[in-house]
Specification:
The chain is of the alpha/beta class. The chain is built from four helices and 36 strands. The strands form five sheets. It has an 18-stranded mixed beta sheet, with no helix packed on it. Strand 2 (68-70) and strand 3 (77-81) form a beta hairpin. The radius of gyration is 32 Å and the shape is elongated. The model is unreliable at 19-28 and 484-518 (pLDDT under 50).
Amino acid sequence: MDRSSHLYLLITSLLLLQWLIDYSSAKSDINTDRSSLLAFKSQISFDPHNILTKNWSSGSNICSWIGVTCDSRYHRVTQLNISSMGLVGTIPPEIGNLFFLVSLDLSENSFRDPIPSSIFNMSSLEVLKLRNNSLSSSLSIDMCKDNLHRLKRLHISYNKLFGEIPSSLEQCSQLEYVSLTSNNFSGRVPTQIGNLTLLQELYLSSNNLIGNIPKEIATLTNLGSLDLSINNFVGHVPRKIANLPMLQSLDLRTNKLSGPIPKELGRLVNLWELQLNYNFLVNGSIPKEMGNMTSLSYLLLSSNELSGEIPNEIFLLNNLLDLNIGSNRLSGSLPREIGNTTIQNMWIYENNLSGPIPSTSVNESRLINFALHSHNLNGKIPASICNLRSLKILYLSNNSLEGAVPDCLGNMSTSLLILYLNANKLSGLIQSTFTKGCSLPINLNGNRLNGTLPQTLVNCHRLWDLDIGDNEIRGKFPDTRGLVSRDNCERSQRRYWFVRGKIPVEQPTIVQLRILIM
């Protein structure tokens, strides 16, 4: 046998030996993964669809099990996704023995008790989704110190987790998405969070977090969404948030923030949602610079203590759909630009506005919900309100509006869901144009209306709330047989018909009226 033949046999033998070693090792590793998954299965106390019970069989290849994905080379488990299966149980520590696991998704189940610390030792893990379970524990203070360095997405919202957010989170330097929403986390947001320079989305809402919003968040230049709502943050809205060029959604509502709204926020030209409602924002008005936020679709500033006039620039935002600046201390008149807008939901209530409602407010408007109640507005209800073909809710109550109720509101009674004009100085007759099928609640209480109730009210056979008290309505009550059905009255305690005010002494022909207050 020549030299080359010996060399060939040697190489072949070495390759065969390496294959045998790899095969033996792979088989051992597969058994490790199998043992880990079977340990997981043993902790499931309820499997409503019998998915794991029937499919995860010890005699079958684990790579064929539902929810399990293996890599093609070593046949190791790389993904485990058993989300939304209605499973009840606990997560065993053996889950940490899936050393090749890249993605773990156990969300939308009913797993309880602590998150096993072994999960935080998985060096290959990139995606961890445990949201919407009943997990209860704190996060290890060193959760990212030694492992999880590849972790990109952390979804552990809607659980019962508690304690402080660990400062070691900064060492999970590849994080792009973090959601701790709706848990019981407390304490301050660690300033080290500013070191997660790849972070694109940060959701910490509905916890018990305190202190100032860390200014270090302003260094997260890739951040597109920031939600710190429904916590106990204090202090001012950081001006440096305006340095986040990619920010599209900023939600700071329902905290204890004070001070002015930073005018610098006007630089956030990519922002489409800004929620600062339910805080204690004072010491200033709504910055006119907000008119530069050309992508803005949702602007919610209600329930603060903002003062001054409403800037015209807001109504020139071409993408604005939802505006809520109610329950503040705003003054002045309604801008004429109010009608040159794409706004669909306009909530401007409980302030100190005065003057008339501009007739331009309804010329080209797409309004669906229109609330201007509880001001000092005067003048007439503009007849052009009839142009609001998409209108569903109209609140103009608690003002000093005068003149007649526009007849067209009766024509809109099949599309309108709520019509509240109470506590004004409206006079004349109630419109007689209620169309067949109308069901809206009507509140005209506390005006100067006179005449009789229109017979067309009988068209409102699903009417469940009519308040005409404190007016000067006279004459006979319209024939309302069939107006209120016994089924509708008794099906729900909410479905009844209130009639208040001056009712004629002649007995009306109401056969199924449940409540009559005179």
